Amino acid sequence: MVQAGRRLLPLVVVLAVPFLSQGSSTKSQTLVDAGLVGLAVVAGAAEWLVTRWRIEAGVLRIDTGLLRRRTTKLPLSRVQSIDLVRPGTARVLGLAEVRVRSGGSREGDVRLAYLAAERAEHLRDGLLDLVRGSHPASARAESLLARASTPRLLASTPLRAAILWPILGAVALLVWGRHLSLGGGGVALATVILLAVGTGAARILSSQYGFEVARTQDGLLIRGGAVGTFTETLALHRIQALRVVEPLLWRPFGWAKLVADVAGGQHRRDEDRAASGRIRTLVPVAPRAEVLRVAESLVGPAAREGGTAPPARARLKAPISYPLLRAGLRDGYAVSVVGRVRRLTTIIPLAKVQSVRWVQGPVQRRLDLATVHLDAAGSHTTGAALRDRSAEEARELLQRLPGLCATARRATPSGPAPVP
Predict the structure, then answer these.
(1) Spans of all domains in the chain
(2) Topology adopted by domain 305-411
(3) What is the pLDDT of residues 85-123, one digit of tens each?
(4) Is the pLDDT of residue 273 over 50?
(5) What distance in Å separates the CA atoms of residue 48 and residue 349, rounded to the nearest whole number?
(6) Cα–Cα nearest to 384, from 395, 393, 372
(7) Residue 359: helix, strand or coil by DSSP?
(8) β-strands 343-349, 212-216: how paired?
(9) How far apart are CA 296 and CA 420, in angstroms?
(10) 2-22 and 27-49 helices, crossing angle to 10°
């Protein structure tokens, strides 16, 4: 029923459009529509019937497909995380899905869907034990790091730039539509904008309701959700960088959020894009001191050390952002603080740095300044920038950083981190 439901909703919406526009339908058209709905149900049942999975010789094997058989083999040694997901429809029926993610392409990941919720939890625990290679009782011990406050979440969502500015634009259309001679078109456009923004806000609230993050033997345990729930395990070695984000409209309240750039992030088939990209939310919204406390539990004192300011002459190049510009190195981490409208603190482990770049623009050249970029694996947005340092300091960093990064990689432990 759940597999069919994933197809039925968009199909019903498509079929309802001509019916609503015409006000009625012929008998033959009704039969065709019923046949299409029946095919969707049959397809869902067939997908469930032909799917099998088992473990053999340390490999998770999944066989599926009716007309075209497909076999996926995922070595347990390559497993990056094992997540428990309960979409809304599955939750109503007491079912859950186990998602096993690898470090390779999205085609190598598997979905074990759907099982009874209790059985899915036992299966996830058993797979985690096999991945660990042991059955330690302490492996499931949790140390709670942060839990989202529902009132703060409700108050902060309308203050997001992606939510507030479209709402203000829609209100302006409604108020000034007659003066601009837009007529009904302005009202229709404003309605569409408000519906889209309302849908986005509801999705944010639904995904971050009850959000909490805890430390376990396997890394970070992230769970939450209102309509559909999820439980995700994020191995610490997959974190490429931490970012403390302080939007302009949150700063008067002292709020911030903590996100992580994750290795191997990409959109998965049949999965929400926000939950499958490179960015993982660790704390959706909390007082800045609490966010820094969580970051400090992961990277140590480097989370609270913003580094040093650039030379005073950098104010000529960046007069607005200069008061917040900070950068520095400490305890195997590089820290950079940028932004005036939205303050962004990036903490990147030197062990994750893949390349170091020295960049000097024409204005920087006149002011004898330069920027050092530290790039981690993945997209060009992953990394940190030590902005507008003196050219001499930037050259020194360019010479020192490769050795510091190599030393940090040798000192990085390969095993799971203990629960504090």
Answers:
(1) 2-49, 52-148+209-274, 150-208, 305-411
(2) PH-domain like (2.30.29)
(3) 988 888 888 999 998 887 655 555 788 888 899 999 999
(4) no
(5) 43
(6) 372
(7) strand
(8) unpaired
(9) 12
(10) 170
